[in-house]
Write a structure and sequence with these properties.
mainly alpha; 10 helices
Length: about 220
């Protein structure tokens, strides 16, 4: 009886050897690939967490500098943020803070570059949309309505569409397209919340073009 079991065990061992000879290398490399993938994923997660922590600390410092209107410190921290964590949402937020401070200080070129960073390299579509609106405003201030309209061509999140319509109205009016400007302002006025203070500003723009939006809205 014992020899019978010995033979069965030997046959089992031989089958395992044959299987391993045929498939052992493939199985080994598959396991290596899986383990490497797990290690890479864990490493990526660690790297992302570490970058996010660094970016948050830098963003906090940048916000403090921006609130204090310390343009030199803003530039320094913004440079560090771009170098150390360029793909983070914090970098995108930092770009908006940086642009505001630099624009207020008269450095429109660098403010524009920061906003373009937020549009082109940012990960958050709402922050990118805000950057587009500010870029349009900068172009309008520079007397460049065509450039302003180009920044407004992208589809923006719904809550920001009335603001985009207002900017579009400004650009169209500057180009002398009064009818198109009226329509853009109407869209902005209709889309803004009733209790928004800015709605009164858009209404004044419409009034200047001979339109009372409240009366137009009440007509059947």
């Amino acid at each position: 009886m014992a020899s019978h079991y010995d033979l069965e065990e030997q046959e089992h061992i031989d089958r395992l050897k044959a299987f391993w000879a045929a498939w052992g290398n493939l199985i080994t490399w598959a396991l290596v690939a899986v383990l490497a993938g797990v290690a890479a994923y864990n490493g990526w997660q660690y790297w992302e967490r570490r970058q996010a922590l660094q970016a948050t600390a830098l963003l906090d410092e940048l916000e403090q500098a921006a609130r204090g209107a310390d343009a030199d410190r803003v530039r320094r921290v913004w440079s560090d943020l771009q170098a150390q964590a360029p793909r983070t949402v914090q970098a995108q937020q930092g770009a908006l803070w940086t642009a505001r401070v630099l624009a207020e200080g008269g450095d429109v070129a660098d403010a524009r570059a920061a906003l373009q960073f937020a549009v082109e390299r940012g990960r958050d579509p709402t922050l990118a949309a805000l950057a587009r609106l500010r870029l349009a405003a900068l172009e309008l201030d520079a007397g460049q309505p065509d450039a302003a309209l180009r920044w407004l061509q992208a589809e923006l999140p719904q809550p920001l569409q009335p603001w985009a319509a207002d900017r579009r109205g400004d650009a169209l009016q500057e180009r002398g397209e009064r009818d198109a400007a009226r329509e853009a302002y109407r869209q902005a006025w209709a889309g803004l919340p009733v209790d928004s203070g800015y709605r009164a500003i858009v209404e004044a723009k419409l009034n200047a073009l001979g339109i009372d939006p409240a009366l137009s809205e009440s007509k059947p």
